[in-house]
Amino acid sequence: MKGGEKVRRAPGFIPRTIFFWVFMLFLYGPIAVIAILSFQGPQGGLTFPMTGFSLHWFKDVIDPTYIGDFRWPFGRSVILALIVMAMTVLVSFLAGLAYRKGFRGGTVLFYLVITCLVAPSFLVSLGIGLGFANLEMQTQWWSGGLGAHLSWTIPIGVLIMLAVFARFDRSLEEAARDLGATEWQNLRNVVIPIMAPGMIAVGLFGFTLSYDEFPRTSLVTGTANTLPVEMVAVTGTAATPSLYAVGTMTTVFSLAVIIISFVAIYFVQARRSGRARSIQARYGPKSDSAG
């Protein structure tokens, strides 16, 4: 803007702005309402207006005095999410390595993996539950639940790793081989460090998708519920504002996991950039003089 001249806005600027803020309100408004209602007083209910303001329902989550003990379901969800995260990263990374070199039947296998994303989540849970029943086995959160979550996280992890490997510069591996590196040294010192940010991203998706998953878990947890299943069960029986407190704590926990993951990616990339600069500073002048 020069000399008080008004900035010309593109046609449709105001409608797009209104649509954007309405969308943000629709997206984050329910989360904000739940967070506010979680601070109800001891006599508060599930709706407005609020009755007092306290941390009573957060204390009730930690030391429950009413229906709904969320402590063990939370622990199961975290443990299951960590297992799913580790297995998703491992399988996705190995799949990325396999698809780089190619193998017979790879295209068919790829579409079979993607089909898991298209299948209705509830039907996946129902199919796993029926499979265990036909084998006369009792499905649990650490068996049937684990399989149900992996059917959701591994396809997404494979897609991410394929995209990351597609940007990988093969000349780096060729240079390592020219310097005498073995396959294991090449994998450990070249491939894995470069793929580390992508692997962290896959782990983040695996953890968060497993931690929040309900449809694929609803029929396979057995006698011990995960946190999402327990929250839905309590909602249908005797819900209190402690349910909102759990939702608020879960949201904060999920955001903390995301922030930690981004910080880890930042440090991995910074460390990798530092190594690249040190190598260039050490060997760059020699290669220039040799040329």
How would you briefly describe this protein structure?
This protein has 291 residues and is mainly α. The protein has 10 helices and no strands.
Residue-averaged pLDDT: 86
Terminal residue distance = 51 Å
CATH topology of the largest domain: MetI-like fold
CATH class category of the largest domain: Mainly Alpha
State Rg.
25 Å
β content, as a range?
A: under 5%
Uncertain ranges: 287-291
> What structural class is derived from the secondary structure elements?
mainly alpha
Shape: globular
**Pattern of helices and strands:** HHHHHHHHHH
What does this structure look like?
Residues 287-291 have low confidence and may be disordered. Helix content is 72%, strand content 0%. It folds into 2 domains: 13-54, no CATH class; 70-277, MetI-like (MetI-like fold, Orthogonal Bundle). Helix 6 packs across helix 8 and helix 7 (170-178) runs antiparallel to helix 8. With 291 residues, it is mainly α. The chain is globular and about 75 Å long. The chain has 10 helices and no strands.
